[in-house]
Amino acid sequence: MNDPEAPIALDLDDLQEIARPLLETSAFDYFAGGSGTESTLRDNVDAWRRIRLRPRVFRDVTSVDLSTTVMGTTVSMPVLLAPVAYHGMAHEHAEIATASAAALADTIMVVSTLANVALEDIATATPGGSKWFQLYVHVDRELTRSLVQRAESSGYEAIVITVDTPKLGQRRRDERNRFALPPNLRIANIAGRPTAADPSEIANYASSAFASVTLEDIEWLRSITSLPIAIKGVLRPDDAQACLAVGAQAVIVSNHGGRQLDGAVATADVLAEVSDAVGDAGEVLVDGGIRSGTDVVRALALGARAVLIGRPQVWGLAIDGAAGVRTVLETLRTETTLAFQLAGARTNAEITSDLIWAPSSR
Ligand code: FNR
Ligand code: LAC
Q1: Is the CB of 255 inside a 6 Å radius of any atom of ligand 1?
Q2: Ligand nearest to the CA of 31
């Protein structure tokens, strides 16, 4: 993985096994793992592949423009990097490497509260790239306020509030490994260190520090920042509409990559109804199991404005640092361009719901 410009026939599914031997077992399991029996983890990927498309022909698709805007930020393609904790376990350059790859690919990195590099340092190191800050609302309101103010003053262009993590899902792999952040790494945005304890350090931290987010919390956050707000972790139309009612500009349909409620529905299966419920009142993004350009087309056809990828960014980071993440993004760009062309679409706007084939449409 050394020339991110070179078109490569890389299957993002292959990356996980290429990255496995490069990581400590506990780190690999933390990144790869889901909750419970990992049924939602598996279904996230399978659900996209169950979706069939009916491409248009007689369209001149010689040139395709993948660019779009998400919450007012222009991106070169409808593929963003989802917030993922602990990049320092995958590569010594950690979130700075990931952010530089996103900047070079002209797309957005959503930086996690639980990054191993302080949000200010990520912003300073990668001034050219558009970044959003993913916020875990803490029981400590002043800590929460300071995170938002720090992100806003560091040039982050939006706040992503994760609402599906009142507690951490049961991560059996982490429990077996008694997972803890390696001693040379820390949660750089938070002072101190989480205490190592059962079932795992991060589960213990989430359990003690994370708030169970309410709509009143969102209204409060709306009142303390002028940045656009996206709410991440929504799977229901009623919750999506509630997000907009309290001032969010976007909803991210997500089940946290199958890491929270095991048995939760795959995001591909609920995206259309959430998108229909939101309508023109806001933007809908989706993550979970996106592994190909065809998956990107499926998501847009079901109403998403853009997708976010989680684990593939980590595998790229582990394999080859910033260049590895860049290769993941450029591979998805190449695949998405081809998928657009074969679907008969030249722009994001031409990816419409009638491209979805369903038995009822016979
Ligand atoms: C995550 N995710 C996540 N989400 C969030 O809001 N804040 C976070 O800090 C993290 N951390 C995190 C760590 C790891 C190792 C994973 C795999 C995931 C969830 C992430 O943003 C996203 O919802 C899923 O990863 C998307 O699914 P895929 O692309 O990984 O299948
Ligand atoms: C996770 C949390 C930290 O999925 O988002 O590990």
Answers
A1: no
A2: 1
CA of 81 to the centre of ligand 2 (A): 15
Q: 70: part of which helix (H) or strand (E)?
A: strand 68-70
- Indicate the pairing of strand 229-234 with strand 79-81: unpaired
Burial class (CB in 10 A: 0-12, 13-18, 19+), 192: exposed
* pLDDT tops 70 at residue 136: yes
Rounded Cα distance, 249 and 307, in Å: 16
The whole-angstrom separation of Cα 300 and Cα 312 is 19
Tokens 């248009």 — which residue? 56
Alpha-carbon distance 205 to 193, whole Å?
A: 9
> DSSP label at 131?
E
Q: Compute the distance between CA of residue 190 and CA of residue 115 in angstroms, rounded to an integer.
A: 9
pLDDT band at 1 (very low <50, low <70, confident <90, very high): low
CB distance 329 to 105 below 8 Å = yes
Please give the Cα distance from 29 to 179 (Å, whole number): 9
Interval 12-58: pLDDT, tens: 888 999 999 999 999 999 999 999 999 999 999 999 999 999 999 99
pLDDT at 135 over 60: yes
pLDDT for the residue 26: 97
Best of 39, 43, 84 for a ligand 1 pocket test (most atoms within 8 Å of beta carbon) = 84
Spacing, Cα 82 to ligand 2 middle (Å): 11
Look up residue 245 and give its two tokens: 């009612």
How much is the pLDDT for 361? 53
| Predicted model pTM | 0.97
Would the CB of 163 count as within 6 Å of ligand 1?
no
Q: Average pLDDT, stretch 300-314?
A: 98
Q: Which of 87, 91, 138, 256 is catalytic?
A: 256
- Per-residue pLDDT, 7: 40
Catalytic, 256? Answer: yes
Distance CA 225, CA 159 (A): 9
pLDDT value for 357: 97
Q: Is residue 332 within 6 Å of ligand 1 at its C-beta?
A: no
Cα(84) to centroid(ligand 2), Å: 7
